[in-house]
Amino acid sequence: MEHKLWTKDFTILTIGSAVSMLGNAVSGFALGLLILDYTNSTFLYSLTLVIYTLPRIVMPLLAGPYLDRFSRKRIIYTLDFISAALYLLIFGLLVSGFFNYMLILVLALIIGSIDGTYIVAFDSFFPNVVEKQNFSKAYSISSILYPLSAVMVPVAAYFYENYSLAPLFAFNAVTFLIAAIFETNIKAEEKHINSEVTKTFDFSRYKDDFKTGIQYLKQEPGLAAITAYFVIMAFSDSSYGTLVLPYFKNNETFGVMTYTYVMAFAVLGRLIGGVLQYRFKYPPKRRFTIAIFVYTTIGILSGVFLFSPIILMMIMNFLVGIFGVTSYNIRISSTQNYLPDGIRARFNGIFQMLTMMGAIIGQLLAGGLGDLFDERYIVAGFNLINLIMLAVIMIPYGKHVKKIYNTEL
After folding, report:
1. What is the pTM of this model?
2. What are the structural domain ranges in the chain?
3. Which residue, 140, 199, 202, 362, shows the most beta carbons closer than 10 Å to its own?
4. 76, 182 in Cβ contact below 8 A?
5. 364 and 273 in contact (C-beta within 8 Å)?
6. Would you say 186 and 9 are in contact if contact means Cβ atoms under 8 Å apart?
């Protein structure tokens, strides 16, 4: 029996996610440029990233038990409505000229809180609108959305160089509003909701649910190994995300526009990788082996990236884009298939919390070192740590990880 992927609910959720990602791609890049212009400091730039990331550590952990009891769909569209109002406020502040670094920090904290809750709600709700047989294809579509939205980054760069960034935040407000309206029409049943439990849900039950989530992860060595390695990967990737833009901006031979051209190849790679994931299915027994190859290749390419000429940077980014989609698809489709629906949000919350902790430590450390040392050596060192921990964590626990990765979807 053929299982239809493009149901009404999946289509609405996908369109809503795509529209909001368009806005996020614009605002994220624009905010980064605003911070660098206001502060002219790599450390203060990284500090803002840390302030944004802090609530993304706390909120997933706090939201997990709640999202395993209440409607995840309602949280998704409510947060999108709030985001629309928030970006409209930023537009107004920029137009009025009432903008400063402290205000940026406050906004980063609020946006981080929203994003930290949203990602757990979305990841936990997404499997409810997809048949398990279509998980791999569905997540390949999800992985394509980011590179499609990233085509807006050159638009943001053009506005930055020639006009004002303010209209971009108005655009962002509109995209979130459209996404929220779409998402209110999703009809998928949320079977994890127990009306009797939700009526009596209090702090005591919340604590019990929280402890159950922690205990579940302790009893699953495969999930624990995957989580631990992705914490290291987040730590490593944070050096790349923190230092590459300042490196290009501060290098007279490169500049911001060159950065957008080089990064466009990563977007192209992710787009092609997503299409390949949609059209072709990896043999289940080879998924773990493929994942290890992908993790190793990404670590090597990212480590030598800033030492390379522009043409080679473009090629490397293209390959990292393809392999990044492969990594994402194998990890998320496998873990979400393996997890029981009633505990999915708690695991996703713990996973997001721990990976965000890895990212925030990496951002702060990379940003501090970036004011003192050559960015190229810092990024290379972080990726060397990534490769070492791959050998220490994932390979020794391969037997347990294979039970999750090598499952027929």
Report:
1. 0.76
2. 8-184+196-405
3. 362
4. no
5. no
6. yes
Report which residue type is found at 137.
K
The token pair at 361 is: 């430590």
Contact 60, 348 (CB under 8 A): yes
The number of angstroms, rounded, from the C-alpha of 202 to the middle of its chain's C-alpha atoms is 31
Give me the amino acid identity at 326: T
- pLDDT truncated to tens, each residue of the chain (409 aa)? 456 788 889 888 888 888 777 777 777 777 777 777 777 777 777 787 778 878 878 888 888 888 888 889 999 999 999 999 998 988 888 888 776 778 888 888 888 888 889 888 988 998 888 887 788 888 888 777 766 676 666 777 777 777 777 787 888 888 889 889 989 999 988 887 766 556 566 677 777 777 888 888 889 999 999 999 999 999 999 888 788 878 887 777 777 778 878 888 888 888 888 888 888 777 888 999 999 999 999 999 999 998 989 999 999 999 999 999 899 889 998 999 899 888 888 898 888 888 888 988 898 898 888 888 888 899 999 999 999 999 999 999 999 999 999 987 6
The SS3 call for residue 397 is coil
**CA-CA distance, 303 to 386, in Å (whole number)?**
10
Q: Helix, strand or coil for residue 258?
A: helix
Which of the 8 DSSP states describes residue 255?
-
Burial of 217 (0-12, 13-18, 19+ CB in 10 A): middle
Smallest CA-to-CA distance from 139 within 335, 294, 291, 290 is with 335
How many residues in total does the chain contain?
409
Q: Cβ of 153: how many Cβ atoms within 10 Å? A: 19
**61 contacts: CB under 8 Å, gap ≥ 6:** 210, 349, 350, 352, 353
- Two structure tokens written together for 293: 């190859």
Q: Does domain 8-184+196-405 have CATH number 1.20.1250.20?
A: yes
Residue owning tokens 């660098």 = 36
- Site of tokens 């990044």: 324
The CB density around residue 408, as the number of other CB atoms within 10 Å, is 11
CA 368/CA 365 separation, integer angstroms:
5
Non-local CB neighbours of 244 within 8 Å, separated by 6+ positions: 259, 263, 305, 306, 375, 379
Among all chains, which residue has been given the structure tokens 């393809």? 322
Tally of CA atoms within 13 A in the half-sphere of 185 that contains its CB? 14
